[in-house]
Every structure is written in structure tokens, then in C-alpha cells.
Amino acid sequence: MASSELLLNGAATGLIVTGAILEAAVEWRGYRIAFFTNDIPFEESLRIYMFDVNMAQIDAAVLGAMYSTGTFAELALHSPDTLTFRFFGGILWCMVLLSEQEFALPFLSDPSGVSRDLKFFRHFRLEDKPLREEASDVSGKPRIRSSSRAGSIPRSTPRLLTAKLKPGIK
Prior knowledge:
- The chain has strands at about 5-10, 10-20, 20-30, 30-35, 45-50, 55-65, 75-80, 80-85, 90-105, 115, 120-125, 145, 160-165.
- By secondary structure, it is mainly β.
- The chain has one domain (about 5-165).
- It is globular.
């Protein structure tokens, strides 16, 4: 698996994460959320990392399955604390951002295709239940920053979080 070093406002953070392509980065209430793909055509997965104000990782999840492929698209904000995006199978994923951590049972609290490290608390919840398609996007808070590969977020917005591929790290 490829690894990348996170850059914050162009400066190296020293944080190394698994993933080859930074698809999007979001800032929400002082937290930063990064979406990475591995750039593996027939077994693509999406890695989601959440960092606190000091860039300490507080939560992470992986979406994917063997022999499945996906394309990250249509990142949108639907309420002050909910992001939606599409990844594999045309599923509209709903990511509920939590202002306080919540209890979660490992292996049982997430939908099929989502995996996490063995922890009993999480800072975001992933749901594969579609929202109403007519729901309008909300602008303003939280601020969304994305790479040019993200779907419905304006491309003119400067990136807050970037990544530099570290090919020697495995």
C-alpha cells in the first residue's frame, strides 16, 4: 500500500497515512477530515481520517471490499454536520460528523463494507442509506476544501490539507 505525508498549508506535518491520492479534505469545527484512495483499479478502497486541531488522528474508517472498485465523487454538505459522497456501487454514503465521541460496538456498528480499528468510540458515523436527492446543499459552516477530483464542491476553493506521496514507505 502506498503511504502519503500530510501537508498543512504547504508545510510538512510529519503525519504518514495509508493512501495514494488525496480525494478531498474538509475542515469542520476545528477538525480536519481527509479522504484518500489507494489508486488500485480493481480493488479500490476509500480511507477516511479525522484529525483534531493539533493534527492528532482521532478516528478512521475504510470503505471497500475485495474485487470491488470505486470512484470518489459528489462530495456535498447537507446540514451543519452531514457530508454525503458516492464511492462504490453508486451508493450515496452519509457521513454524520459528531461534536462528541459516541459509543460504538466494533464490527457491528458500521454498515457492510466499512471497517475500523478495534475501538469502542467514534467521532463520525457512516451510513449507506440515501438521503432525499432534492435536499439542498448548505454553504458556510463547515468550510469544505477539496482536491480537483471531488464532485460538487467548488474547485476554486484553495486546499487546506494536501498530501505528498511517500513511495519508499510501506
